[in-house]
Specification:
With about 90 residues, the chain is an alpha+beta fold. The chain contains five helices and three strands. The protein has helices spanning about 10-15, 25-30, 35-45, 70, 75-90, and strands at about 20, 50-55, 60-65. Strand 2 (about 50-55) and strand 3 (about 60-65) form a beta hairpin.
Length: about 90
Amino acid sequence: MNLIGTKWKPLVLFHLLEGAARSGVLQKRVSGISNKMFTQTVRELEKDGLIYREVFPVVPPKVEYKLSERGQSLELILRHLDHWGLQDSDN
């Protein structure tokens, strides 16, 4: 829980289950997250080895995030949380 036990980390990880995403696209998918919180969240996830950050040497800068093997190991947990949340919101 220390690795994913915040409001935003599971959401960022869940959206990366679909594949790699550019920074701006990923941030838009995570509704309601501020720029500061997004940056903090992806930095912590990268530090913990759950995601990779790739910077492309182009202008303007292109940054892409994707799940690491360790992050991919959370897929079942994240999908179960999503399923539970959908069921719970129906009640």
